[in-house]
Amino acid sequence: MLKKTLQWRKDFKIQSILEEDLGSDLATAAYMSGIDNQGHPICYNIFWVLDDEELYNKTFGTEEKRN
Predict the structure, then answer these.
(1) Which pLDDT tens digit goes with each residue over 29-40?
(2) Dist. CA 66–CA 20, nearest whole Å
(3) d(CA 32, CA 45)
(4) Phi then psi for 23, rounded to 5 degrees?
(5) How many Å apart are CA 38 and CA 58, to the nearest integer?
(6) In sequence order, what are the beta bridge partners of 40?
(7) How far is Cα 20 from Cα 43, in angstroms, rounded to an integer?
(8) What is the mean pLDDT of the chain?
């Protein structure tokens, strides 16, 4: 399973996401605030920002591109 995961990461150039400029459009899509009772950070995801079709397509691509 590990070999398959590593091969998938290599095939799809997953490391390249680190160099991508995601812009500030998604800054409102999630934020960190506080910790839970076990000391883990709490992340809030605001999914309604993706109701904007242009932002959604910019983030996830069109169905045609995904295929």
Answers:
(1) 778 899 999 999
(2) 18
(3) 9
(4) 70, 180
(5) 36
(6) none
(7) 22
(8) 82
Candidates 34, 52, 56; CA nearest to 43 is 34
Could you write out the three-class secondary structure of the chain? CHHHHHHHHHHCCHHHHHHCCCCCHHHHCEEEEEECCCCCEEEEECHHHHHCHHHHHHHHCCHHHHC
Question: What values do phi and psi take at 41, rounded to 5?
Answer: -65, 150
CA distances from 62 to 7, 8, 10, 26, 56 (A): 25, 22, 23, 17, 8
Task: List the beta bridge partners of residue 41.
Answer: 35
Question: What pTM was estimated for this model as a whole?
Answer: 0.40
